[in-house]
From TrEMBL, chain A:
It is found in: Cell inner membrane. Belongs to the ABC transporter superfamily. This is Quaternary amine transport ATP-binding protein. The complex is probably composed of two ATP-binding proteins, two transmembrane proteins and a solute-binding protein. SUPFAM superfamilies: CBS-domain pair, P-loop containing nucleoside triphosphate hydrolases. GO terms for cellular component: plasma membrane. It comes from Sinorhizobium medicae. SMART domains: AAA. GO terms for molecular function: ABC-type quaternary ammonium compound transporting activity; ATP binding; ATP hydrolysis activity. The keyword Ribosomal protein does not apply. It holds the Pfam family CBS. Coiled coil: none annotated. It catalyses: a quaternary ammonium(out) + ATP + H2O = a quaternary ammonium(in) + ADP + phosphate + H(+).
Automatic annotation (TrEMBL), chain B:
This is Binding-protein-dependent transport systems inner membrane component. GO terms for biological process: glycine betaine transport; transmembrane transport. Coiled coil: none annotated. The lineage of its organism: Bacteria, Pseudomonadati, Pseudomonadota, Alphaproteobacteria, Hyphomicrobiales. It comes from Sinorhizobium medicae (strain WSM419) (Ensifer medicae). It holds the Pfam family BPD_transp_1.
Amino acid sequence: MIRLENLTKHYGPAHDPLIAVDNVSLDLPTGEICVLLGPSGCGKTTTMKMINRLIQPTGGKVFINGKDTSTVDPIELRRSIGYVIQQIGLFPNKTIEENICVVPDLLGWDRRKSRDRAKELLELVGLQPDLFLKRYPKELSGGQQQRVGVLRALAADPPVMLMDEPFGAIDPINREVIQEEFLKMQREIRKTIIFVSHDLDEAVKMADKIAIFRSGKLEQYAAPDDLLARPANSFIEDFLGSDRALKRLRLVSVGDAMETDFITVLETDSVEHARARIRSSRSAAAFVLDAEGAPRSVLSEQVAEACSGTVGDHAEPVKSTVPITGDLRQAVSVMFAHDMPLLPCIDEAGRLAGVMSYRSIVHHLGHGGKA
Amino acid sequence: MEIIGFIIDNLHIIGARTIEHISIVFLAVGIAIATAVPIGIAITQSKSTADTILYLASMMITVPSIALFGLMIPLLSPIGHGIGYVPAVVAVILYSQLPIIRNTYTAITNVDPALREAAKGMGMSTWQRLRQVEIPLAIPVIMAGVRTAVVMNIGVTAIAAYIGAGGLGTFISRGISQSDPRQLVTGALAVSLLAIAADLFLALVQRLLTSRGIQGEVTP
């Protein structure tokens, strides 16, 4: 756990200081990612660097797992905190293996243990150890270098990591890939991470908590969905942008927003029967399932009102589905692409688990999400 | 033809003079590396100190070598070395300071600040940072300074023949005083070849000392 208590940094003369960071306090539970977000010069990087004492605080305290870090030797402290910088900063004179082993070597690990660790870490991100261990940084692509930069910070298995715009130098396509990869890794390693970013989309994607800074002050500290649903003031509203509701789509899972009171009918049922069931419910359609429970076709309200005969004669095939593990962004995208006002949501086994409609999305976003 | 004959007849003397010459230059530059590299690193801490030291070293290099030798006669006479080997070595040490200090200083200050920050942020002490990151990265540029110093001082040492330091300059000084073009040309040729050979040798050393990861990059 990381706790900042009234953390403050002043520059310049004491009587007329330049206040870089002003009384920042926050708590970050173990295993979560906190993104420090804000325009440049807002104090987010200074705040981060006070955690590993690259910058000495003027006032306030930093606690890591309950321990006041000002009582620890700064060099010892830094070795116990993973550190990733935007420029990657791999040492060009060292091989990939030596780069990854920097902190284990500083800590005096057994050579064999640290080299094994380097191998294991490279495998973790899909870089073949035999190919990469003995290479030099200049022989790697930018994306590969960035991965190694993260591995280097993880080498000594520190409980806490500081990441200063770690994916900022990578092109947008690779950035997405590396972000995903990192999140996947984080789900297993559960590090407590302070992550500096100026990119709201990145923050929304990576963060468990977002801390928004302005002129050295912490303006709001909240989970991404909370932040987007309830910005604390007009500065944050402006910062989040007018499309903040759309940004929330990514944060809500299909399973959370779908309606589960859908109607199913059989192909052999009469349209009148289906019409009666649709009328007596809030649904706008009835689904026909196959033997496994997967949605096969759909009879919409309009068709049901206009036709007669059996359901099988009039139901239209289901054009697409969305998994319940997906997010609303995905669901909306499918709905737009296939012009489907009603989108069947399926579980892992492919069975119909719920239905997504524009109404359910608006309803969900309107109610401030999970809260 | 006459000259070639002279060279062939005197090969063993030329060899002995060459060794004298090399011993002066390499001993002196060796000592200069031991002083100038630490000075070059130390002055990265303060811009104003760096300016002063580099200024003094530049002034040093503007003193003509013959004047420096003259100056050293009264200074070193009290310890019995007014002329000969010792003042030659001292002069070369002094002349070597500027290229080595300046290149060390430039190389260390030019280390990418991101690397310094990464090293510091990962928990390296100042000394560890120097040893593991800054000096290895600075090696090509430091070595370029050493090469400049060696080549330049092979020339300076030729003049040290006038204060009895021996070396290949002996051929030149005798060639002039005896109006003997054979000695003169032999001396001049040998000094030039030695300078070229020393530079090539040091280029090889530079390559061996430079990490493969930073080879092939341009050095100032």
